[in-house]
Amino acid sequence: MVTVLERRIQHDYAVGHVLGTGGFSVVHKGVHIKEGSPVAIKTIKKLGFLQAPSFKGGRLLPPQIPISETLLANEILVMKHIVEEVSPHPNVIHLHDVYEDEVGVHFVLELCSGGELFDRIVASKCYSEAAAATVIRQIASGLKSLHASHIVHRDLKPENCLFLTDEDDSPLKIMDFGLSQIEGVTNPIVGMFGSIDYVAPEVLEKRLVLPAGDMWSLGVILYILLCGYPPFYARTNREKQALILAADFSFEDTWKTVSQSAKHLISSLLAYDPHKRPCAAELLDHPWVRGDAAKQEPLEQEIFQRLQSFNARRKFRAAAFASIISSTFMFRTKKLKSLVGYQDLTEEELKNLHEYFRKICSNGAGATLSEFEEVL
Ligand code: ATP
Q1: Shortest-distance atom of ligand 1 to CA 318
Q2: What is the pTM of this model?
């Protein structure tokens, strides 16, 4: 049972360096003072604690924006529910403690030091359908457990899947339950959804939020894993939405070497009707997911290279999103719900963003301005 501890986290944990930042959060490495065990501490600031952008190690860090009480309360509720109903599960992040102080809420989480899903794949020496099936199996196993406990993730995407350790056989963990819903308990955060690339048609249409929405997202992840580009690709969000709402995707030339079993599976996960998609338990029983029908030989070099460049662009976009939702003007104009919509920005906002990125790029973020412009 997790209770929110109303004392300073520094009583129990030594807070170390920054592991990463999200739009609403900053994650530090930490060590339990008495036990010496490493953890990740995710801090979400409350409203009223605006902070200007700051420099750290010569790099410009995005300003951390306070999150609304509703979102924060939702994340706490879902995380507690996971501890009570799901944990421990090898493929779901474990929450140790929650602290609340005057600054905000600190989630003490299992430390995942193995990196993000796609980073590990593009760095791997031998990547095959069988390796992709191992990934899908783990996410499906986590989802099976979450769905059995009536939790719908609602923001399943590669950046929310981290490896626990650097070991080759490290478990993959599903995390970031900020937008999640407990069926029949919490209200979906109205109008808000995760990254549009992974979002199901019924979510865009603001119909019922169902576990099947997560299965759609998993279908999108699988599609990218096997060809290196997303199934619903368009220059603008509006066009992307139209493709998603029509479940309009295809298996082009690149797919000729991919097994039929994988293609059937993707088609079933990306079915417009949520009731026609397999549930997580059914997926785990699928011959391709079990590994029996997945090809063992390495995927074509061309696919692997496309996956690498998709991942590079994805990381760059993630930095841009963090910047967008960190900007107060986005809050004021209530554009929070279109987190991913560059195309929705006004000229003025775009100019601000551009200027912000010019600063980031000239401060060692490892990306160039022209890369940013290409993304835009
Ligand atoms: P947002 O909340 O805006 O969707 P996000 O999902 O990237 O963004 P967080 O979940 O707060 O935000 O994570 C920020 C970064 O911190 C992640 O990209 C990841 O690199 C790192 N991180 C988060 N949780 C852990 C963890 N348990 N162990 C190690 N690193 C973590």
Answers
A1: 7
A2: 0.83
